[in-house]
Write a structure and sequence with these properties.
Length: about 150
């Protein structure tokens, strides 16, 4: 729940920022000189890109959460078997062991979205966020029956 609240707050602040920047872009365009119109259009592009990125990220999170809920209902969520340091951080060797299991599971069933979901969690635990995201995107695509991302 805390993560959802943090995400919602961050998204709200970003939307406020995009509106603020967009209004400045409109003000520049309304000035009417070639230079201010050019800058105004350039300033308006930033909020458009930001809103697109926020929308795509929100869709990704919603789809990943839906897969987690479905996997939880099936009793297939990965069990947290990671060793932790006294400070609560995940032990790197423990994360590597679990990752090796998840990778083998995914290699044995490359068309199963469940194994890709669990691999994404293992990547995340190993602090490899880019690969975790790609594995989750693959799990979502397999679940939805869409073409797999490259």
């Amino acid at each position: 729940m805390r993560a959802k609240l943090s995400y919602a707050l961050t998204a709200a602040v970003l939307v406020f920022y995009f509106v603020l920047v967009g209004s400045r872009g409109v003000m520049l365009i309304q000035t009417g000189t070639v230079l201010t119109v050019t800058f105004g259009v350039a300033v308006l592009i930033l909020p458009v890109i930001g809103l697109w990125f926020l929308w795509k990220n929100t869709q990704f999170v919603r789809r990943a959460n839906a897969l987690a809920a479905e996997l939880d209902a099936e009793g297939g969520l990965p069990v947290d078997e990671l060793k932790r340091t006294p400070g609560g951080r995940i032990d790197r060797d423990s994360a590597d062991e679990v990752f090796a299991k998840r990778k083998a599971e995914t290699e044995a069933a490359p068309d199963d979205w469940r194994s890709w979901f669990r691999l994404a969690v293992a990547y995340h635990d190993a602090r490899d966020t880019p690969r975790a995201r790609k594995a989750m995107q693959r799990a979502i695509a397999l679940h939805d029956g869409r073409p797999l991302p490259a």
